[in-house]
Each structure stands twice: as C-alpha cells, then as structure tokens.
Write a structure and sequence with these properties.
The complex is a heterodimer.
Chain A: H1 16-41, E1 56-63, H2 70-89, H3 92-97, E2 109-116, H4 121-135, E3 139-142, H5 146-159, E4 162-165, E5 182-183, H6 189-204, E6 209-215, H7 218-232, E7 237-244, H8 252-259, E8 265-268, H9 272-284, H10 287-290, E9 292-295, H11 302-305, E10 314-317, H12 328-341, H13 347-366, H14 371-379, E11 384-386, E12 389-393, E13 400-401, E14 404-409, E15 422-428
Parallel strand pairs in A: 1-2, 1-3, 3-4, 4-5, 6-7, 6-8, 8-9, 9-10
Antiparallel strand pairs in A: 10-14, 11-12, 12-13, 14-15
Chain B: H1 4-35, H2 42-60, H3 63-84, H4 94-116, E1 132-134, E2 139-141, H5 142-164, H6 166-183, H7 188-214, H8 220-235, H9 240-260, H10 265-279
Antiparallel strand pairs in B: 1-2
Helix pairs in contact in B: 1-5, 1-6, 1-7, 1-8, 1-9, 2-3, 2-4, 2-7, 2-8, 3-7, 5-6, 5-7, 6-7, 8-9, 8-10, 9-10
Chain lengths: 448, 291
C-alpha cells in the first residue's frame, strides 16, 4: 500500500504517479478491509474474533518435556519453534509450502506458549484450556501420546479452536475419535502397518510367528491390531502380546514371556524411552539373538540411544533426513534445522514444522482466522507441498494422505556420518495405504 | 505363556526384581521409621546415585569406582539435605514434610535434566558380568543374577548395622520411641542425620547398581518411587524386614501376573496393597500404633 498521504477530499495537483499509488492503495484498501469486513460478519466462535483482533495471534503448544516421551517432545518443540520463526520472517521454505505467506499469518505475528504435557492427557488439556481462556489461542497443538491427541481433539471440538495434531500414531485420532476441529499430518498405525507389512513378508517370509510389546493405551492397541491384521494375510500369527503401562520401569517379566513364546519376530510397538529400555533389555535377555526385531512406528533417536541395536532393523517412519536427495524442500528444512539446532531433525520436528506450515497456508487460503473457513480450506483437499512431496488432507476424516517411509538400520561400517543411522528401503505412496474414510468410525461433528 | 518352564522363569525373575525393590525400599523405610519423615525425594536420590556413578564411570571406566562414588555422593547429599532442610521439619506437620521432600525431588530431577538432558545414559555392567547365563531352566542376564547377590550382601550389611551395632540399637529404639531415646541422653538429632545419610546411601547404591539394567534418564526414580511406596506399605512402614518381604512379594506379583495377563501386573500389585491395608493396616511386619 502507498505510504504517501492521500486525501480524496482535497484539491491537489495529482500527478500520474500519485494517482497510480493511490489506485494501488485503494485496491489494497478494498481488499484488506474486505477480509476485515467479512471477519466482522462472522459470528463469534471459540476464540474468534477476540484471538485475532490484535497485531499478533497466539498458539498453545503442549509437548512432553518430562517422562518417557521427553526426548521426542523436545525435538518436536524445536520443529514448532523453527516453523513459527520461519512464518514470522516469511522464510523461503514456508513460502514454498504456503505461497501467500508474507510475514506472519494474514500479516499477524505468531506468538506462542509452551506447556509440558508429560504425555498425560489431563495435563495437556489443563494447559491448553488455559491457553484458550487466557491467551485466546487461535490454534492449539500437542500429541506425542495419542491419548493426549485424542483428549485435545475433544477439547478443540468443545472450545471450537483448531487443533493441529502433533505426533500421534493411533488409528483413533482420525478414526473413531476424529473431530471437525482436529487435523493430523503424520502417519499412523494403519498406514505404518500397510507400508511395512509387505516389506516384512518379503524379507522374513510367510507363516511367521510374531511376539508384540504393546504400550497399554490407544496408540499401542491400534498399531498392534493393524500390524496383526496385515501380517495375518500372509499367515503370520501372534504368539504373545505383552501389554505394559506407559513408563514401565522394567520389562524383564514381559521379555521372559516373549523369550518363551517361540516367536520368530519381535514387533516392538513401545515408544519413547519405553522403546529404548525394552529394546536394551530384550538384548540383555538374549531375545534379540533369537528373533528379529521390528519397530513398526519408528521412535526418534532410538538408534542413537540403543547403541547399535537398530542395525538391520526394519522400521516405518514419517521422515528420515536422507530423503533430502530426492526432496528439495526436505533439504531446505534439514539445513535450516541443522544450522539452528546443530543436528539433523527427526520426524517429530518434521511433523511439527509441516503441520504448522500447512495450517498457515490454510488460514491464508481462507483469508480469515474464522475457524469454519479454515476447516473448509483444509477440506478442499487441494494437493499441497510438504517435505515428503505433495500431499492432501481428506475431507472425511481430516487425515493427511502422505507417504510412509520404510527404513532399515545401517551397520556401523556403512554409516557415512554419525547421524547416518538408516537406509531408505522404500517410500510408499500414501494413497494406497489409507483405509476407507469411514472404516474406523469417524464422525467429524459440527462446524459451529 | 502359561507353561511350567515360563512359570519357573517368572518365579525366579520375581525374586531378582524383588531384591532390587527391597534394597530401594529399605532406605525409605529406615528414614521414615526413625525420623518420621516420608522422603518423597527418595526416587530422585535413587536417580542421582545412578548419575553420580555414571559420571565416575565416564572418567574412570571402572564400575566399582562408579558404585562407590554413586553411594557416597548420595550419602553426602542426604546428610546436607538433612542438615539444611529436613531438620527444620521434624516438628512440623506431615504435609509440610511431604511437600518439602516432594519439592526437593523435583529440583533434583530438573537439575539433572538441565545438565544431562532427557537422553538416556548407559552404564555397562563390568565385563565379567556381561552376557547371558544358562540356569538350565532359563537363560538369564548374568548381571541381573549378580544383582541378586549384591543386593543380598548389601541388605546383610544393613541388617548387621541395624541389629548388631550400638548405632543400630539406637536407631531401632528411635523407631519405637524417639522421645525416650532423647530423654536417655542420646543426641537423637545426630542419629537422625546418620540415619538419613544411610537411607540416602541405600537409595544411591541401588541407583547405580540398577543403572546397567535400566539405562538412566532423569525420570528413572519417579517410575520406581511408586513401586517403592507399595513395597513399604505391604511390608509395614518403618520395618526393615518388612521392606525385604514387601519387595519380594511385589516382585513376584508383577512377574507371575504378567505370565497370565501382562496388562494386569500393576493392577494386581495395587490390589495386593489394598488387601494388606484392609486386613493389616500397619503392613505385614509393621507395628500397630507407630506414628
């Protein structure tokens, strides 16, 4: 918009240049207030319009910074912070994902608050309720524990504030517990199982016996169920499913049951430190010498923390940094992240970054923070860029249709640098991995 | 996996698990029995024992040095904690004692997180105790077998101190009636300091002994603190033999239940605690009427 003062009511010698500037100003003025005028036309809902009436908008972030998922939560938080920094500064990478972004979202600076969820739903809900009530958050995020994601789904729907889901592997998040106000970018039990099962069958053969280590909540149960269903098609059977509480201090009794089960493959669905500890103890009990380990829902940093135990192990993941050879946006992200934090991002950070970038794009597309308009922008199902190629969100369950990446732990001698933990086995396109939208009982609920 | 070999394996595993729980719980119970302070920072001290040992191990590469350093460091920490903070709370309500030890526990955990981050750290067992041993009926990690022996020796040592020395006699008398001990001219506060130090050392020792089994994180003590309380409640608050019995019972319950249905292992543990509280509110070996 022109910075020169222009008052139509005054008689002035108007030059062509001034006229052009004024014209530009008028057009700009006609467009910008239009969205403002539209905004005023919308009824108040959730934190709208109070949350977006100033020069900045607030985002509530809850990640686990303590407890068994703390390491993954910190990585996730870094992804969020980088995305916010990039959105506020109008970074090139954000512009590639959200072309209408200049600086901020609809010109408003993003501010945020961080709360430690400790991967506990009640703590996450309390923190986010505070962010919504006191800070008028226009968007909330959190996860790393599907129990948290499901709880925040419900909070978002009740409060009519958009929830952009963090790490969540449960089928329920966009299945039976899906909501109109929740969106998930990352892969989950069903897509992980659909992607990795054919690789496992090809690698290990048909009619194998599998033992499972399953954390006792929605994530664990749905991932294990999906793995069992897909592997059953090739005659795989389950010898034992060892269900354990989140943050179990010891896995010896479960592992003895596994060791005595006669399984060929150990499928470890545990996550965070639980995955690290159960894998280390599986080694101590000789289980890994007897059976092959598989991690169907990859755990960021598990390769580093288990000191070589992931070598040769197959895992499904959302993102592994070496795909940068194939995806230029991944390369841009890795470089920016590495420059700021000094290490290669894991998939928690990737999911965090992309889901914020997608949200920024949808708000820009909607031209308003009015939640139903933003939701409808997602529901258009447009093909949009991400760090793993083009993706889209399904209108029926708000799940992003995106590829799943199958990796295999590298032997130490093959590692080109200290963060080169995995070989990319296959990048499986997302479309073929998804269940039918209503297969898991999703009913999104109302817009208002 | 309900079959005879697995039952025997789980029975044995319960013993090993229980031995460790007994060691951690004994420190908690001695402190409570003598000082009347329920130390909610006990889990954090267990964790610090592991980290202090880890630091010593990284510098020396010696597991024995790590064990000594871990134990002594936490003992010193315990003594300082008693002198600076706890002694001001002996005559204050139990709620204040719970809050102050809970607060200290949080501070300890977060300081360790600040220094070491949440990433897990590994202290490998000594080379001669690495690998797996065949017991005929099961294969079991050699180090875990050794832990049973180490814990037995440590608990034996604690037993000797408590039941065969003058200090132990005073401590046990203090558990029964600290006012009487005081009026007999014994400096009961000095004894309190020593007891707190010994209790803390037991936690620190358990922390570093347990480190090769679990891999260290700042939250390692939080997870085990709950189990420790269950052990103490089952065995009898303030009872040293009760801590050992409670530890073994808890270990067996977790192991045996997991054989039938792993999802119920912890449910059964708490069910057992509830049962004990209903039938013997002061615990299996606790004394009725003790404050």
């Amino acid at each position: 918009m022109s910075t020169k003062e222009f008052r139509p009511g005054r008689q002035l010698n108007v030059s062509r240049r001034t006229l052009l500037q004024a014209g530009a100003g008028l057009i700009g003025g006609a467009v910008l207030p239009a969205s403002g005028a539209l905004a005023e036309d919308h009824p108040a809902i959730g934190t709208y319009p109070a949350g977006s009436s100033g020069s900045s908008v607030f985002i509530g972030i809850s990640v686990p910074r303590t407890g068994t998922y703390a390491v993954q939560g910190e990585d996730e938080l870094k992804g969020y912070q980088l995305a916010i920094e990039h959105i506020n500064s109008g970074h090139d990478l954000i512009k590639k994902i959200s072309p209408k972004t200049t600086k901020g979202v609809l010109g408003k600076e993003l501010k945020f608050g961080v709360a430690d969820s400790a991967a506990k739903p009640n703590e996450a809900v309390q923190a986010q309720q505070r962010f919504i009530t006191e800070n008028k958050a226009v968007m909330i995020t959190g996860g790393t524990s599907s129990a948290v994601a499901v709880a925040l789904n419900k909070l978002a729907q009740r409060e009519k504030v958009i929830f952009v889901c963090g790490i969540s592997g449960s089928n329920d998040t966009t299945g039976k517990d899906c909501v109109r106000y929740g969106f998930r970018q990352d892969f989950f039990g069903q897509t992980a199982a659909a992607a990795i099962a054919p690789v496992l069958i090809k690698q290990f053969g048909k009619n194998k016996k599998a033992a499972y280590l399953t954390p006792d909540y929605t994530y664990g149960h749905t991932v294990t169920k999906s793995m069992q269903d897909f592997l059953a098609t090739a005659g795989w059977t389950t010898t034992t499913d060892q269900v354990s509480p989140l943050g179990a201090p010891d896995y010896s009794s479960y592992l003895l049951n596994v060791a005595n089960s006669g399984a060929d493959v150990l499928i470890n669905v545990n996550w965070g430190h639980d995955a690290v500890l159960s894998t280390q103890q599986a080694k101590q009990f000789g289980v890994l010498d007897k059976m092959k380990l598989v991690v169907p829902y990859q755990v960021p940093f598990i390769a580093r923390e288990t000191g070589g135990l992931m070598q040769g192990v197959y895992a499904a993941t959302d993102y592994w940094w070496t795909i940068e050879d194939k995806y230029p946006l991944a390369k841009m992200f890795n470089d920016a992240f590495d420059k700021k934090y000094g290490y290669k991002p894991e998939w928690g950070a990737e999911n965090a970054y992309v889901s914020f970038a997608h949200w920024a794009r949808m708000v820009e597309e909607a031209g308003s923070f009015y939640p139903p308009d933003v939701i409808k922008a997602y529901e258009k199902g447009e093909t949009i860029p991400s760090l793993v190629g083009d993706v889209h969100y399904r209108a029926e369950d708000h799940q992003c249709v995106r590829p799943v990446i199958i990796v295999r732990g590298k032997m130490e001698k093959d590692m080109k640098n200290k963060e080169d933990y995995y070989d990319i086995v296959e990048i499986v396109p997302g479309e073929g991995l998804m269940q039918k939208p209503d297969a898991f009982g999703c009913h999104l609920g109302d817009y208002t | 996996m309900i079959n005879w070999p697995n039952f025997v394996s789980q029975l044995f595993n319960g013993l090993a698990l229980g031995a460790l729980l007994a060691l951690i719980s004994s420190g908690l119970t001695i402190i409570y029995g003598t000082l009347g302070v329920l130390n909610l920072a006990h889990g954090a001290m267990f964790m610090i024992g592991g980290y202090a040992g880890y630091v010593a191990y990284s510098y020396t590469g010696s597991f024995v040095v790590a064990v000594v350093a871990g134990s002594l460091f936490v003992m010193a920490l315990g003594v300082v904690m008693e002198r600076v903070v706890i002694r001001h709370f002996y005559h204050r309500p139990h709620e204040d004692q719970l809050l102050v030890t809970f607060g200290l526990g949080i501070c300890f955990v977060e300081i360790v997180r600040l220094i070491f981050t949440s990433q897990s750290q590994v202290v490998p067992p000594p080379p001669m105790l690495q690998g797996i041993t065949s017991l005929g009926f099961l294969f079991y990690p050699t180090y875990r077998l050794a832990v049973v022996g180490i814990v037995a020796v440590a608990l034996g040592g604690l037993f000797l101190v408590l039941y065969r020395t003058r200090l132990g006699m005073i401590v046990r008398a203090g558990i029964e009636d600290s006012v009487m001990v005081d009026s007999l001219g014994i400096n009961v506060y000095r004894v309190f300091m020593i007891v707190f130090g010994i209790g803390a050392m037991a936690a620190g020792f358990a922390g570093i002994i347990n480190a090769p089994v679990v891999s260290l994180t700042p939250g390692v003590g939080d997870d085990i603190l709950v189990e420790t309380f269950v052990v103490v409640v089952i065995g009898g608050v303030g009872s040293f033999p009760g801590a050992i019995l409670g530890g073994l019972i808890a270990g067996e319950i977790i192991s045996i239940t997991s054989m039938f249905n792993p999802g119920y292992a912890y449910v059964m543990l708490f069910a057992a605690m509830t049962l004990v509280l209903v039938i013997r509110p002061h615990g299996l070996l606790g004394t009725q009427g003790r404050e």
